[in-house]
Specification:
Band_7, Hypersensitive induced reaction3, 3 domains, alpha+beta, Band7/mec-2_domain, Tetrahydropterin Synthase, Chain A, 3-stranded antiparallel beta sheet, myristate
């Protein structure tokens, strides 16, 4: 019995080709390592052919053909494969999420060339595995072509600054176009991201300089406004101080006039025979000598040369009196 089984195995090994026939070129073969049909050594293939069984890994589906024609999609697990009835596994298709990074060079509306980097996340649909396996020969090239088309149609309508601000709108346009195109081939577009927009290095440097100049200009304007406010407040303070100083001087002079009037009236009453003129002359002489005393007593006073003599007081009194009389006559007219 053992010798018969050994002879049968040898016959199968002899009939089996030395190298398995190549699988038809499919889109999944260029996408990931799990996208190709798995091959085993001749002994394992012989045992599989003898037992008419085939294994499909998790997150993978197998395409079964009968005499070169599509027969069915095999889910993960162990399946019967009657090779003598012309059935075979044409290949396997991964259902895992895959990512394709596309770099597209285009220009903006203001004639700035940029590199737009887009990341496309996609996967094959299990219920459309036959379409994904047979309809496309190179899925990555197909997706890349659609991405180029949409980006080069969208970005030239935008200025450079607007392109940075509207990255989500560009990604949404790419995703909608890919979803419409790839759904017919059994693929689902899960997510589309505009990862980066890279202008030329000279453009980056110029943008940074423009930004820095704008910030410096804004800082200068703010500084000028601050200095303006300080000067206005200082002027308002000086005006208010001068106003209050004028009020103080006016009140001081009013107090002096009131005091002089009271002094003249009191002196005239207490000293009979004196006139108001005599009293005013005496008051002026007193004020004159008090002023001289203050000038001499001040340590910081400069040298002051004034005409001085017995008649100087009379001259000062006459000048003051004449000024008062002229002011009174002007007020009457």
């Amino acid at each position: 019995m053992d010798s018969c089984f050994h002879v049968l195995i040898q016959a199968l090994l002899h009939c089996a080709p030395s190298s398995p026939p190549p699988l038809p070129a499919t889109n999944c073969q260029g996408l990931c390592s799990g996208g190709t049909a798995s091959r085993s050594d001749p002994l394992t293939s012989a045992m599989g052919n003898l037992c008419c069984c085939v294994q499909v890994d998790q997150s993978t589906v197998a395409i079964r053909e009968q005499f070169g024609k599509f027969d069915s999609v095999l889910e993960p697990g162990c399946h019967c494969m009657p090779w003598f009835a012309g059935k075979r596994v044409a290949g396997q298709l991964t259902l895992r999420l895959q990512q394709l990074d596309v770099r597209c060079e285009t220009k903006t509306k203001d004639n700035v060339f940029v590199n737009v980097v887009a990341s496309i996340q996609y996967r094959a649909l299990a219920d459309k595995a036959s379409d994904a396996f047979y309809k496309l020969s190179n899925t990555r090239s197909q997706i890349q072509a659609y991405v180029f088309d949409v980006i080069r149609a969208s970005v030239p309508k935008l200025h450079l600054d607007d392109a940075f601000e509207q990255k989500d709108e560009i990604a949404r346009a790419v995703e909608e176009e890919l979803e419409k195109a790839m759904s017919a081939y059994g693929f689902e577009i899960v997510q589309t991201l505009i990862v980066d927009i890279e202008p030329d290095e000279h453009v980056k440097r110029a943008m940074n300089e423009i930004n820095a100049a704008a910030r410096l200009r804004a800082a200068a304007n703010e500084k000028a406004e601050a200095e303006k406010i300080v000067q206005i407040k200082r002027a308002e303070g000086e005006a208010e101080a001068k106003y209050l100083s004028g009020l103080g001087i006016a009140r001081q002079r009013q107090a002096i006039v009131d005091g002089l009037r009271d002094s003249v009236l009191g002196f005239s009453v207490n000293v009979p025979g004196t006139t108001a003129k005599d009293v005013m002359d005496m008051v002026l002489i007193t004020q004159y000598f008090d002023t001289m005393k203050e000038i001499g007593a001040s340590s910081k006073a400069s040298s002051v040369f004034i005409p001085h003599g017995p008649g100087a007081v009379r001259d000062i009194a006459t000048q003051i009196r004449d000024g008062l009389l002229q002011g009174s006559s002007v007020a009457k007219h």
